[in-house]
## 1
Amino acid sequence: MSELTTVFLTRRFDRINPESIDDYIADGGYEALRKALTLSKSAVIDEVKASGLKGRGGAGYPTGLKMQAVAQASGYPKYIICNADEGEPGNFKDRYMMEKDPHQFIEGMVISAYATGAEKGYVFIRGEYDNAIAIVEKALSQARMKGFVGQNILDRGFDFEIEVFTGAGSYVCGEEYSLMVCIEGRPGRSTYKPPYPTHEGLFNKPTQINNVETFANIPHILSMGGAEFAKMGTDSSKGTKLISLSGNINKPGMYEVNFGITIRDIIEKLGGGVRDGRKVKLVQLGGASGPVINPSMLDLRLDYKEMQDAGLSFGSGAVIVVDDTHEVLDILKRGIEFFHHESCGKCTPCREGNIQMLILLQKFIDKTATAEDYKLLDILMEVMGGASICGLGQAAPTALKSALKNFSGEFEVSKVNMGEAV
Amino acid sequence: MVNVRINNKEVSVEPGTTILEAAKRIGIDIPTLCYHPDQDRKANCRVCVVEIEGFKTLQASCSTIVCEGMNIKTNTPRVRNAREVVIELMMANHDVSCTTCPSNHHCGLQQIAADLGIRESRFENVLGTQEIDDSSPSVIRNPNKCIKCGRCIQMCAEVQGLRIIDYTNRSSRAEIKPAYGKYLSDVACVSCGQCSVVCPVAAITEKEDIERVWEAINDPSKTVVVQTAPAVRVSIGEEFGMEPGSIVTGKLVAALRLLGFDKVFDTDFTADLTIIEEGNELLKRLKEGGVLPMITSCSPGWINFVEQYYPELLPHVSSCKSPQQMFGALAKTYYAEKMGKKPEDIFSVSIMPCTAKKFEAKREEMKSDGEHYDVDVVLTTRELGKMLKQSGVNFRELAEEEYDDPFGITTGAAVIFGASGGVMEAALRTVYELVTGKMLRKLDFTDVRGMEGIKESEVDLDGTIIKVAVVNTLSKARDMMELIKSGKADYAFIEVMCCPTGCIGGGGQPYGGTRELFRKRMDAIYRADEELPLRKSHKNPAVAKLYDEFLLEPLGEKSHHLLHTKYFNRKK
């Protein structure tokens, strides 16, 4: 068990009072910032690049490259945004980060601001996270008092202000473009890209936008050095990973794991197995927008590259376990209903595609689907995934698409029309 | 220059060019719906998607700027499949009753579906039928036709600065409508109809009044007279596939006679009359220390704007009725008397580039006899096009004819009313000669011409320099109103037109309007002016005769009653 879990980002959890900056400082907090301020901006970025840290929001883009792009982009002012709009069903690890050790990611934001030349930061926190909002607000005011945030940080003539911005409950605002237009005061709807946020982000200015967990890693990279950090994890996946484990499991919760752990170990060794002694029917990775895998695939390892090679992704680290008392198609339907509810309605494939996906899926549930329906569903998912304007529409068919492959037996087409499509 | 490959063909374009534009250079028209050349990129319909090497997902060609070495494919099976599915998805949440649709034959969705060979949508139709909003006298909003492209929103918000309609609800229930689901008549919509011009489908169209005109024409007890606005003569040809900017005045007259109108008159006549009345009003204000700057009142969208948004500035607005309403008043009084008819026996129709004119004609003040509307029906340029098609008139082939007397003799000053700056230029031609007593040598006031939103000029009236300004679009009008309120608008006279580039870009004009096309209509307006023997309103002999016989003097008793009006605070 000890080699499966680790305490790195969660080191201070339940050991310090999250509402006391003195506790954080006493535990070595903000030392990484002090160290960063003695380095050149490019040296800070080099450390992050050397660490191999990839964004923990789901896309897995190298954080150092993102910081470098913002640092090199022309445009003033520059912004740092912490995406704490943790709305993906099945995810709750950022909430723990904010509630149990808020200064860790704030320190990461300040270091990023120094490295990129940003003067203003936002923490966009999911509106339902009342407790996290209060704790982060308090942490920020303490950090301001101590001179870690605000004007002339640590007397180094560097200014960086951070503001908390809360969403109003819309899932799509966790998508970075929707999130940014929301801060700009417009309705949370995504927009086309490129241009990317690193060049034209918030208010059309260069913006580094990362997840809470990503920022929380940055102080550690500065403290221990990028090369040392890179020794943790696997070849393609550096550091540790926070997992949100939920579903029909004996011990649901947030776990910090080493990369390379198998899904089976997460379920059995961390989660204590499936509840009531039932069997695993399916596991959904990453959240509602992630793929589903069947019981024969549980030896897959948590690793960016291995997952990618298998045509999968673990997104932001949710593991949702579903036991054999549930029907696969019902689970899928709930997910698509969610996307149908949350689609912003801007682009055609997502606006009109989700409801059509539901209609076609219902035919499989009702066992009235024909070979034409199967073919149409396949085509629809391809177009939603390929032509939607943002991640919501692109990812909405992911679960269903993976189910067609990993649970092909569930998708019966009526015998009469059994055709060449199946 | 940036070098890219599109469908294996090399093309070199300026930096900043979109894939859509680059493809056009090599002869490929990528289909689009939400894209409009004069609007910001939206990229929401996803019809224009293409494949780019190195990109996992398809990219919208309307929004993606080319990069050096980009390898683009516009016609792969993946792209064609995406386009088909996107169109089918739209059709599955759309009232697909094409044959009876007001936009039949000029619908973007229908066109692309036809081009792609889509016969029916493979998806189940999920349209939850919504109430049609016909509360406005000018436009009808039919949410069952809306494809949520957002062109109307951008027009209303960016060009007119009003934001009357916007997105509401999400997902497949997304709609575009006024806030809180209010009716158009209950919000501060100005009826300009610009939303209807840019709508690619039939989600917003003008309120059709064609049937009422047919009834009148077929009613033997009615003398049906028609007036044609200046801007219509340079645009109606487009409805019949003629080159934008074709001047078709004579064909227009012939066509209206073929439809059965008893008399075909020209709004230009009362445009000249407007100049006499408005010019004298300006001189009176200048002489007597009246409220300045004085602002024109021809554009009913603009009047709706000032009454609803800046009622405190109404004293600045000229009391002159618009040329349409001056015409209507004279038709039912002077002309009725002349013909020995009762006002109710005259049925007065106007052909306008405008949807707000429908609203204007229905104002209670616009009944000269206190009982009957001076203008019975207003048809837009587009509606006239439909009427002509209904009756099989082969517009392009018609021989040119002349307007009827007495409201057919007009000047170039009246024609240019159709373009932004035209009323100002016409007024200056007359005011200059009235004030100085000298003949104006150079008739062209080029400073006030052109497409810009705000134009300025100075005129020397025998030693007195007056500053004038010309404004088009309501977002610019708002800027001007704020300038007036701040006390910094040192102009004597301001022309405001509601629509982009003036009436030629009106909300009732043929579809497909872009700034490039407006430019052609504008050039045609000034060509028409140059071709006329008379180019100053006060030299119009028929207008002079009207004063001799009937009105007696500008700003006189009869004028006051028939040609001037008052405005109301209609703030919502």
Note: Chain B touches chain A at residues 41-47, 49, 57-58, 60, 63-65, 78, 81-82, 85-86, 89-90, 92-93, 122-124, 126, 147-148, 167, 169-174 (CB under 8 Å).
## 2
Amino acid sequence: MFDYIFLVPLIPLLGFIFNGLLIGRVPRPLISLVGCLTVGVSFILSVFLFFALKSLPAEARFIEQVLFSWIPAGSFQVDVAFLLDPLSAVMILVVSGVGFLIHVYSVGYMHSDPGYGRYFAFLNLFTFSMLTLVLANNFLLMFVGWEGVGLCSYLLIGFWFEKKSASDAGKKAFIVNRIGDFGFLLGMFLIFWQVGSLHFDTVMKTAPLVFTAGGGLITAACILLFVGAIGKSAQIPLYVWLPDAMEGPTPVSALIHAATMVTAGVYMIARTHDLYLMAPDALMVVAVIGAATAFFAATIGLAQNDIKRVLAYSTVSQLGYMFLACGVASFAAGIFHLMTHAFFKALLFLGAGSVIHAMSAEQNMRKMGGLKKYLPITYPTMLVATLAIAGIPGFSGFFSKDEILWKSFSSHYGHPFLWVIGFVTAGLTAFYMFRLIYLTFHGQERMDDKTRHHLHESPRTMTVPLVILAVLSVVGGWVGMPHLFGVTNYFEHWMEPVMTPGYNASEGPLLASGGSDTGMEILLMVLSVGLVLAAIYAARYYYQKNIQAATALREKLSGLNKLLVNKYYVDEIYGAVIVRPVVYGSIFLWKVVDVVLIDGLANGLATIARDMAEVLRHMQSGQVRRYATLFVTGVLLVIAYFVFG
Amino acid sequence: MTDYVSILSIDLSLVAPELVLLAAAALILLFIPLRKMVFLAPVIAALAFILSFYLAVGQWHYSGSGFAGLVTCDSFGVMFKLIFLLASFLSLLIARRFFVIKGIDKPEFYALLLFSVIGMMVMANTVDLVVMFLGLEIMSIPLYVMAAFNRRSLESNEAGIKYFIMGAFASAFLLMGIAFIYGAAETTDFRRIVADFSYIVANYRIYLYAGTALILVGFGFKVAIVPFHTWVPDVYQGAPTPVTGFFSVAPKAAGFAVMLRIFLYGFERIELLADIFWVLAVLTMTVGNIMALRQDNVKRMLAYSSIAHAGYIMIALVVGGSEAISAAMFYLVAYTFFNIGAFAVVTILETRSGCKSDFVELAGIGKATPYLSAVLALFMFALAGFPPTVGFFGKFYLFSAAVKAGYIWLAVIGVMNSFVSVYYYLRVIKTSYMDPYEGQPAVVKLVPSIFLVLIITAVGTLGLGFFPQKLLELSQAALFAFL
């Protein structure tokens, strides 16, 4: 079975090649069939691989498949090789599973788009890159996938490139990501310099011998890698591209900018957690940035009116939770939240897509309202997802978020203050998500007549994925129930072989110390559920029952509201502090350094080369006797060199 | 190869691949009077190449010597046989269509092609100077005719005549050199020259060195070392394009096979050689690249580019040692793919009426034939040495062999030359995609045979760029018997 690991990323690549080469030459049904089927087959393979891995004893769940030696250059050896272990198994299931549903959904959503073939080609290429990223067994191949998903993200954000805002958003995403990628690269260089390998297993095993725990080098390496994660996973200060990325088609937002690609940073930290455990300072940075982003993005989410932007900020905020989990060395919890988030956030985006589809491309929630009766499938599924993200007990988000909150309080690396931020954010999340539900589906119908006339539930290809994701949003969390419910936490147990025993040992006493902690855990859980319920009630009060109260509140807090609506003016600040100086600096470099110095030098060299060519050309006259003369001269010189040299 | 045929203790299996080609050539010549059977000529030739390839693969790791020591079969020679066969098979596929369109499809061409390949194989599979010379002539004489094959074209005739005159000129020097060596060593067999080397140097130094110099000149002419390169631009431009593609690869590989054997095995202990090759390599790559900058004709540009590439491969002659030689073989295989591929595209484009392969005629093909111009771009990137094409690894292995042997400056000059070459290779891409053009550029028709060539060369160029390891191992294994 494990011989087929390489097929998991390869099959979507074949789909990309097929759809990419034959753009405009194959009928749409064939495009859809190839596009969806390749990812579907990949998913089925992933399921088989998962069970094959599960049938092995826990300590043997580490399968490497070396396809070929990629760069053999002296001591620098990199293979194209895949690693299947409990962590990557979960990731390929999520990527190909959620990916497959979103491919199917796209068939309905994109049905009338002229770029249909191009869309599916890119989407398949994305799936290939993402699967390569999570299956890679070394940093460099992971980086290939990392750049590949970045490229696809750029291409798909700017999918409607004739729209300036879309192509600008694509460029913004790409440029901001470059900053992060640069950090990743530097981190990679540092690791190779110190360890002499980029192979994950070798690096993790050798690192303790090379680095001093808590030392400057290891901390620098981890922070540099984290800079990469910050860019890809949209954390402070590089989160600014993600909200703009909503210019892309909605299924793209669901797949790339919510469920999979943006979680690559979290995956990368989980994959390299052995390094982070040697650098407590770096872990603290991860935790603080994660918590701060969670809170900060949630506050912006409170005041957005574009349905996709609310979800975008919510994604940034939820990613913050995942980093918070990683930062308190609770990597399994971070991955667990990554998984549940993939379900409910993909569902939220797809639901939002269905709403936008019904609303004739209107995204402003203020012009919606009362859609509940028009969208009998979209509404309940989105409600399920909202309950999940808000953290209502029984839904998947509850288990994963609660585990993060508890770990941020109780872990050796945690701190009550981190818990407080996570706790408040949970309340904010519940509030803005239910604000979205109430504004969209409840209350008065605020759309114009033409739009109302067009309102319709989406086709099957779109609603079936919604229903499946809704089921997953509920049951997806049941595999990771907390210990105090008296059941096994299957997810944590599954992850144990990857997450080193050392980490569990340090965690052990805290968990094992019994009564008082269990009491504390229950207390914190009750507190957060209480806060969430209160937030939902408040949202209901302001946005369903008493919309004037919301207006009044907005006016009362107009300063704060303005600040939030304008997203703390971060884009403007970046524009003034970074972009403009860079632009002016670039103009200087262009007009002075480039045109005068470099072009002068290069053109000078070119002129010399050209003049030389002109001289030599005269020797190439086409006359054989001249050729013979030159020939004989050469012969004499060579003989002279031999005889007298 | 246990069931070899043996007549009077002559081991015919040593030359089985050559014999197949010879039989095919004879068959084609017999068919000539039967005008209705003419269409069979290229088929027979192609089948002969395939069969010969198969037999040559069978000779891998089979080392032996026969015909009174005149023929030596080793993996090094087999590797080159495979290169010749690959190059000529691909050229054959390109040529057929081109000749039909140009109205010069004569069966004699295929016989000539087969004969010249036999000559190359003879050259690569001997350690005797006289046999090398014999092979060189068997190879060269058909080449002269092939260059002039387009009888009605003045340029083609001129190419043939020029090639012939200069070739004869060079052969004279070569023969003189062989005579000097024989005078000094009383043998032309390198095994004995190597064995008696100290004695020869001590007593006949001047003859040995003069002979070496003249041999260098004679074979240097074939691989177009500057200043013995002057025939190349005129011949390459004048000869029919598929023939040019063949010229740029196969005879060059044959020349290098012989030179690697002579100078890194036979005369390995002449220290002066490294210095003189250093100068000639630098001269060759620099002149080739600089001249290529100003060409307005793509074929002529590719002619100079092939001179520059010979310069890169000569790094192996400077450096010596197994790593450099295997790098040179790697480069020759890689070069076979992307250079023949480039000529295949040029050939197709030239099938448009009135086309002379000038740069301006490339304008607009990016729109008119997107796939064709895409592969053309791929080959240009490979020629320029960009990753992930095999062109990158070819240069990388050569230059790194130079660096490891301490020839830092040689590698630096090589890299700088590569930079220069980027200009004119990218100019092809720029012209085909970006230059303005008037009207609708004529759409060219792809025929299956040329399509097959493009597939093979493009897959080779990219595939070996992604998986260079296998080919590198193969070229290293080929040296097993050589050193």
Note: Chain B touches chain A through 36 residues (CB under 8 Å).
